[in-house]
Design brief:
Number of strands: 9
Strand content: 15-25%
Radius of gyration: 16 Å
Bound molecules: guanosine-5'-monophosphate
Number of helices: 8
Shape: globular
Distance between the termini: 32 Å
CATH topology: Rossmann fold
CATH architecture: 3-Layer(aba) Sandwich
Helix content: 40-55%
CATH class: Alpha Beta
Strand order of the largest sheet: 2-7-1-8-9
Order of helices and strands: EHEEEHEEHEHEHHHEH
Length: 199
């Protein structure tokens, strides 16, 4: 992985419905130095999703072709669909920007193998599982079956908290956002890099 050693790579993982996507988008809006890593997936787009912005939506055949050609830094099968991070996309982005990954624990394990990366691994959890289910239903972005799959994966997901540098309990989105900012600022200060804030 080509990397200049200065730009940082933040992984944000969580069980579905904990608020990761909202936080990721909020972060990108506030900090121009950060780009969100746009993954490839074989799942169908939701009504509010845009190809090339939320994901690159591809067929299973195309995805498997990319696997064969060794184009991914990491990929995983989640809820019956493939999700993966393309090498070329990350290499290009990290030349000029910090990057934020919204990936699961399987992808985190794979990225962690690249020891030269300036990775910060953050795991977001909730202390209220029932609230999570309500949020998944309220979000109204998945079929009943998909909601069940996401809810049922909670117990498996949290088993992997130990693979992360920081665990944050998302009780309040604003507080949680500030905690993530603090973690990143600390790392940035260590590298003496100016952390650019969008005014
Ligand atoms: P969703 O279908 O709700 O958008 O995402 C399902 C799960 O896939 C989420 O936990 C998300 O973090 C994860 N995910 C999204 N993109 C990637 C990726 O490129 N690699 C891996 N390993 N997980 C991903």
């Amino acid at each position: 992985m080509t990397h200049d050693g200065e730009n940082i790579m933040v992984i944000l993982s969580s069980p579905s419905g904990v608020g990761k996507t909202t936080l990721t988008k909020k972060f990108q809006q506030k900090y121009q130095s950060f780009k969100i890593s746009v993954s490839h997936t074989t799942r169908s787009p939701r009504s509010n999703e845009i190809d090339g912005v939320d994901y690159f939506f591809v067929s299973k055949t195309k995805f498997e072709e990319l696997i064969k050609k060794n184009k991914f830094y990491e990929y995983a099968k989640i809820f019956g669909h493939y999700y993966g991070t393309l090498k070329e996309y990350v290499d290009k982005t990290t030349q000029t920007n910090d990057i934020l990954f919204d990936i699961d624990w399987q992808g985190t394990k794979q990225l962690s193998k690249f020891k030269n990366l300036n990775l910060i691994k953050i795991f977001l959890i909730t202390d209220n599982k029932q609230e999570l289910k309500k949020r998944l239903i309220k979000r109204n972005q998945n079929t009943k079956e998909e909601i069940e799959k996401r809810f049922n994966s909670f117990d498996e997901d949290i088993k992997h908290w130990n693979d992360y540098d920081y665990i944050i309990i998302n009780k309040n989105l604003e507080i949680c956002f500030k905690q993530i900012e603090k973690i990143i600022e600390n790392r940035k200060n260590k590298s003496s890099i100016f952390f650019r804030k969008v005014q």
